[in-house]
Amino acid sequence: MKNIFIALSFITFVHCNKSENSHEVQANLLEVQDDKVDASIVFETPPPPKEELPKSAMISAKAINEEPNIYAPKNNVIAKKIIKNCEIEIQVGDIKKAQNQTSEIVKKNNAYIQTERFTNTDVDEKSFLTIRVPHKNFDALVNSFSNVIGSVLSKNISSDDVTEEYTDVSIKLNNKKIYLEKYRDMLRSAKTTKDMLEIQENIRELEDEIDIAEGRLRFIDDRVNYSTLNLVLYKEKARSSATSKVGFGSRFGDSFTEGWNSFIAFFLGIISFWPFFLLIPIVILLWRKWRNRKKHFTE
Fold it and tell me: Which residues form a coiled coil (predicted)?
């Protein structure tokens, strides 16, 4: 009985050692797997190398204007661009009073006088003004001049829709800016002097075209935001005013002198025809000879 108990104890001991060893092996395997997972997390795969743009990707700056804008947002709608102009000629009784009224109307409508010119002749007085007015105050300004200052001799209002031109220039400008950035990136990665010179030339052309396009857009915005009014203030002078203070003797002398000058001019004009006077006798002589010869043959 004692021997059987010893044998069972020995078998149990051996079995426990095997299970412990198996647990240790499994633990070691789990540690190895954890190490592999950690290594995959720490050491990430490097990104692929950047592809260099081929030389054939360099596009002429002139071709940019012909390509559609594939980069511009399609939902970007440009508001209407309307340029308004007006020309008014007004007859007034007092030119200075009309000029003062004009200054008040201009100031009231937040406008300003861009140019001003004045002429004074024996026949009339005229004041020419070019007025720039905010677009929203254009109609009010025109109505003020039409109803307040004097009698309107002529009025011409025109509206020019430049929305299509503005949109076209804006799209081409955006394309040029996109290609400009592409050329600058290519310049940083250029490897030969020839490529660098070609890219720099394209960049220079694009920068010039961008400056021109931006200037055109600024000009259109200025004409749209501020309308233009060409105003003429006209005062006709009395025809007798130039001679009302001149005496009869002076006027008689002036008339006599004018008559004498007219006679001299007529006489000199006749003298200027002297070649024709010499030619007339010759023509008459030839005509008589021809008539006598014809008469002789008929007899």
Answer: 180-223
Structure tokens at 136: 């929203």
Question: What is the pLDDT at residue 46?
Answer: 44
Q: What residues contact residue 110 under an 8 Å CB cut-off, 6+ apart?
A: 133, 134, 137
Report whether 170 contacts 154 (CB < 8 A): no
What is the DSSP-derived secondary structure letter of residue 227? Answer: E
Residue ranges per domain, the chain? 1-44, 57-243
Tally Cβ neighbours within 10 Å of residue 297: 7
Query: In this structure, are residues 86 and 142 in contact, taking their beta carbons and an 8 Å threshold?
Result: yes
CA distance 97 to 298: 90
Instruction: Measure Cα distances from 275 to 266, 280, 284, 287 in Å.
Output: 17, 9, 15, 19
Alpha helices in the chain (DSSP H): 2-42, 95-108, 138-144, 163-188, 193-225, 248-271, 274-298
Residue 158 in 3-state DSSP? strand
Structure tokens at 66: 């012909």
Which amino acid does the sequence have at 218?
R
Report the C-alpha gap between 206 and 200 in whole angstroms: 10
Torsion on CA atoms 111, 134, 110, 96, rounded to nearest 10: 30
124-167: per-residue pLDDT in tens? 899 999 999 999 999 999 988 887 788 899 999 999 999 999 99
Calculate the CA dihedral of residues 221, 222, 225, 227 and round it to 10 degrees. Answer: -130
Cβ distance 196 to 190 under 8 Å? yes
